[in-house]
Amino acid sequence: MDGQLRLGEHYICDLSNCNRELLYDSERSRDLFFQAVRDSGLTIVSEGYYPFSPHGFTCFLLLAESHASLHAWPEYGYCAIDLFTCDLDLDIKPLVDKLISLFGAQDAQIKVVSRNAVCREECPA
Hints:
6-stranded antiparallel β-sheet, 23% helix, elongated, alpha+beta
């Protein structure tokens, strides 16, 4: 009998009507994002950042637990944030709430996707 082994949680966050002034300051936004992830207890092992012209940016963190990314469209007051972790004991919801607050999102759509492996035999404990 096939089963599923839960290996991670993936938070997909669409933040709209954010603080545009902050999003236009891509370096400050990046720093706030990185610090919020750092403060959450996740382990940063590498980072990346790319500003677009005339505005907008992408930044990401490679985590020991998986990854975190932010893609910003300041002209629309929008940012897309992905948080994927395989540390199932760590509650990511406080980090999501902090990011909503930091970026001043008036509207937030959050989807949580369980990342599961299908086990053809009995799933390991």
